[in-house]
Amino acid sequence: MFTTPSNAATAKLSPLLPLTPAQAQLVDRIFTFTTTHLNQPGPAMFAIYGDAGTGKSVVLAHLFNRIQEAARTQATSPLAGTENYFLVNHPEILKVYREIAGHQPHLFKKDIQRPTSLINQISQGKRQADVLVIDEAHLLLSQPDHYNNFYGHNQLASLMATAKVIIVVFDETQVLRLKSYWTEQRLEALMAPVPHEVYRLTHQFRMQASDDLVRWINDFTHQRLRPLPSSGGTNYDLRVFADAEKMRQAIVARNQEVGLSRIVSTSGYPSTLDRGKHYITEGAFHLPWDQYNYTATPWAELPQTINEVGSIYTCQGFDLNYVGIILGPPIGLDEHEHLVIHLDRYTDVEAFKRRDDLTDPQELTAIKQRLILNSINVLMKRGVKGLYIYAHDPRLNHYLQQGRHLA
């Protein structure tokens, strides 16, 4: 019986892990950029673009550890005595980075902050910021959000007004809510007036899948349909299930063998933020959605969550060994074999909260569809060793099975 180590997520982001030569060169380049611009009129910005699984967070972990080591131990460094922060707007990922900080001599848990907390502390004169490293910058709020105690208009703009150097990683295909609606074009418009550099990561590190399967996922989530590859690759387990319960049983078996295997789902099933249990039912399959995780351990590493269904809010940014994804009622196939998105069947009310600057109905519809497709992309790319798929829509499930042996 495999026991998931308590530090499985942190081990994959540890600054002690070796980097590839290309990653090491990128860390050197950003570090030089940081020290060059630190004492010049700011802010200066460095943006790293890359799809899910391309190693963005690993690069940031190494970079921030190096920045803080220089700030706290190297008296002759331009960074000596600077006040620097690592920011992330995802509560589950925040736990991972704080756990990492607790084991590194030059990192403190207080170095890891949520953007709103730091913005509010700076505005109150309690902190200042020299260098900011921002993971998952596509999750930064781009409108006021009273629920999160953010009363500005854009979190990145607020941070640019206070810091000297800002490093962000950004993936517009992982934008999941209207209140954090971003595109590369919007980011570049903010960077344009200040000194900046960009770098794009392309190599897939997370998934042991073939390049063809990764391309298929990217095509599928841009509504460019083609038959699912017959194989996910030599070292990757790709299956389509006609029965969600059988998929659950297979994921349980994988979890017993290698750990970190979970069922996840898109929206489209009962879900309300009332701390009650809401269930996904597909035939004999009947499991509750993930619950809010009050522990310091990431959701996927809690043993009991094998009996829950993960969402984008617990799984984004995390590696699973095997992922079983349920494509819910909003995702279907029409009679012409075109992928269609049924917005009226989407049940995540938080995702589509109104924003006053998006008023064109056609544009808003397109953006909402893009957010749903992004959620599929995020969930499909969680699995390191395997991807199992079940589609609620019978026509879509049949299409996915074409040319394959049904699991």
From TrEMBL:
Domain AAA+ ATPase: 42-211
One matching Pfam family: SLFN-g3_helicase
Protein name: DUF2075 domain-containing protein
Organism of provenance: Levilactobacillus suantsaiihabitans
Phylogenetic classification of the source organism: Bacteria, Bacillati, Bacillota, Bacilli, Lactobacillales
